Amino acid sequence: MQTVFPLPRGGTSRCLAVRLSEKGLRSVRRRHPWIFADSIEKLAPDAAPGDVAVVYDGKKIIGAGIADPDSNVRVRLLSFGASREKVGPELFRRLAGTAAERRTEAGVPGPETDAWRLLNGESDGFPGLVADQYADVLVLKIYTSAFLPHVGDVADALFARYPALKRLALRFSRELSAMSAERRLRLADGMLFPCEPEWNGEVVFRENGLRFLADVRSGQKTGFFLDQRENRARAGALAAGTDSVLNVFSYSGGFSLYAARSGAKRVTDIDFSRQAIAASMRNFELNREIPAVARCRHRGIADDAFHAMGELERAGERFSVVIVDPPSFAKSASERSQALKSYSRLAKSAVRLLERNGILVFASCSSRVGADELFEEVHRAAADAGRPLTEFDRRAEAPDHPALFPESHYLKCLYARVP
Ligand code: SAH
Asked: Same domain for 63 and 135?
């Protein structure tokens, strides 16, 4: 089935052979999806983004992918082994089917939920591309120019598999927009299809029975942090019947609404983005018919988290549950030690704001900082602040975000009681 949306289809119709060094071959045999420039012995110098790239080990084909000459990851693999399956609509349909089965087996999206990740990049065989559903909207977010000539075929595969989808939002990573690669194909970040002037990119969806509004055209990520769905549910359950919850780095109030629904009397959001605080207020409005949400006293503080937490502490405020879910502080390996210092400061502030026997929920989405080193730092910081933690759980991304190779793990979330 082809959508009516005018998008590039059919790839570039070029198929190139790639020859790799021993190191590159080993990496492909381990089914790692990235081929770095320094592993390539031969690839046509005029390779264009999206050209099909077939990897030979001298005798036979061992993988197939798409070329990305703009990036240090020069080829991104979609399939492994000796298969002669062509990179194109049929392969995209098959991979979308495998991704769907994987999610059914894992029980996602779960009850009363119509927003979830349909394709999670390399771990679903679509390196550099994610696809999310929000009610009837498909959001395709593209991180590599290699997918640009194929984007219509990927959209068709998903529209055919998920009949509830009616609309499409096309998003590009910041890096890709900066390269303006998408302009060569007359595409722009935040394009909406069908191009109805009355649709501004806002869509209301449901997650575990709560209603949320996402701005799929210009919201962060694809409009919502779907990877935290299970942690929101768990933190909500822990907040049941508590007096007060602090949600630091709240974005549009996801964690806050779960806490309010389970009966937390007061919920405070902190986020330095005014739009995020306004979105959280709107999301509370959307759930007014739930009595516990209507009863909850909800407050938003648009301020820097480090500053606002210090102010709350000086004002003598204390909370039963503190949730800390910062953005990635380490975008590169060189920022790791600075990031650990920031996590440490946040953990100290958070435990100082907790009542006796309070609960700390502390997450990080930085793939550059491992769970063990991060949580060691959080434990140390809490102990230094005189409030050592009794950890009772650690979690990762929701199962619609499979992570099948080392670099794809990023989200970790610690749960602890603070006596
Ligand atoms: N917990 C959220 C996702 C948080 S994303 C959810 O479940 O949906 C991180 C948020 O931190 C973003 O909304 C961003 O605006 C905010 N942020 C980043 N740096 C900040 C800072 N220094 N102070 C306050 N908020 C910040």
From this structure: no
Domain annotation covers residue 214: no
Ligand 1 mean position, distance from CA 282 (Å): 17
How many angstroms separate the CA atoms of 364 and 366, rounded?
Answer: 6
DSSP element (H, E) containing 323: strand 319-324
Number of separate domains in the chain: 3
Are 315 and 405 in a shared domain? Answer: yes
Residues 402 and 363 in one domain: yes
Ligand 1 binding pocket, CB closer than 6 Å: 225, 228, 232, 249-252, 254-255, 270-273, 276, 304-305, 325, 327
Three-state SS at 76: strand
State which ligand 1 atom lies nearest to the alpha carbon of 273: 15
pLDDT digits (tens, 9 = 90+) for 352-373: 999 999 999 999 999 889 999 9
Here the CATH number for the domain that contains residue 164 is 3.30.750.80
CB 14 within 8 A of CB 51: yes
pLDDT digits (tens, 9 = 90+) for 50-109: 999 999 998 899 999 999 998 999 999 999 988 778 899 999 999 999 999 999 999 999
Which atom of ligand 1 lies at the shortest distance from residue 325's CA? Answer: 1
Of 80, 99, 128, the position where a domain reaches its end is 80
CA-nearest residue, atom 13 of ligand 1: 251
